[in-house]
Amino acid sequence: MSDGFLHESLRCVDWGVATADTIAAPPPPTPERGGHFRQWTDDLRQLTGVVADTHRMVAGWPQLQPDGAGSWDRDALDRCDRALDALLAHGTRPALTLLDRSLPPWLDAAGGWLARDTAEHFAAYAAELGRRFGDRVERWITSTDLAGPTLADHVAGMYPPNRGAGRAGLPTVHHILLANGLAAQALRATGARGRIGTTVTLVGGYPATDDPYDRLALERLESWTNRLFLDPLLLGEHMVTEDGDSPVEDTGCVRPGDLETITTEQDLLGLSWHTPFRVTAPENLPRVLPTRTCQSALNAVNRLLVGLGFAIVPFDDVETTAYGWPIIPEGLADAVAGLYELYGDALPPLSVIDNGMADLDLVDATGHSDDDRRRALLRARLSWLAGLTAAGVEVCGYEYWSVLDNLEAKFRYTRLYAMAVPDHEAPPRPSMPSDWLQHGAFAGAAVPEAGRATGLSLVPAAPRAQDSGTS
């Protein structure tokens, strides 16, 4: 696909660079950040012919309200003011993220997203920032990721370890969605002029084989990732599994009027993209995942996933990054297309947040990046995305993460995502949380509100082949 077509199809997109910097925190001593910001801005200019003129940063709730509701750190507020003014002075349009996983310690100690009150505190925090910064921020993102503080933390126990509650953690999904709706309403009530939206981690992939049960396994993966958050956000109903259960509603956390708040109109939907998955049905694992090719410790992750009716396996004969991520340029476009097929006109304009470029394979021994290789991979991905926008899918933004962003999560989890660490390599460090792997995120957790038995049966057993009439 020619660069001309790429330019034409993506000409209306807001180009920007995302950074994990928290502007409420004291500035770091190292001066390198500006250089890397310019480097990735140059990438976009070389490939698209435009200069990235938006910059998204994290406000820093723990720094702004360290001591409790109603109190504010004046120095932290001043740092936010100066950062926003500095961007505007350089002709850069500020975009502000309210939440990047971490809550203020006083809220975390009170239960975090397990506590419904956290949604109300978040709305009050959003309102205060809207009053202070609403005349300068052009785009508001309520959260960098809805799944991280909920599924990964309180359900699976990924960060930090030893507090994954399995089924009993599912109310966090409802509460963070409620917080997003309340925050959007609060920001609009202050007169903040910027567009408002949130971010979900887009998950997509391909069936491991042509077996119809592998296709069903992929649908289950997408249900427990994309649909778990987007069904309530866009359709006003919590995800229902194929056996008719609604795992979030079954916890008893939903109150009258909540879903109306959750479906508060979004000006955009951010999509954080990592890597495509190759998905198989649990009964097909022996066919597609020989134990000699992958670390047994990583294969143990599938002990968790098979309870949901699917498993993840490496791609065959596909080049990978240093972290084991498959290099499949069309993966992002295919995942966005699948999302469009599922939700259609219910989708708001999409803003892609691409943090798939942080690969140390693209950095030489002196710490300098391999510009040609990095840009070639980015060009391939953007070309597939351009074809999708030409077909009518509305993409309103694209943010490009640098090699410096999100490193903590990458070092710990990225190879795990792809299940592709060969036997001769050491497993990721630090090791996986024991309550995630050994105990099972969806086992042994009671639901006090509903008085149910422990454990979570999510999907029925696969029917016999002769009973299946569709693929």
TrEMBL record:
InterPro entries: GH, Glyco_hydro_1. It comes from the Bacteria. Keywords: Glycosidase, Hydrolase. Pfam families: Glyco_hydro_1. Belongs to the glycosyl hydrolase 1 family. This is Family 1 glycosylhydrolase.
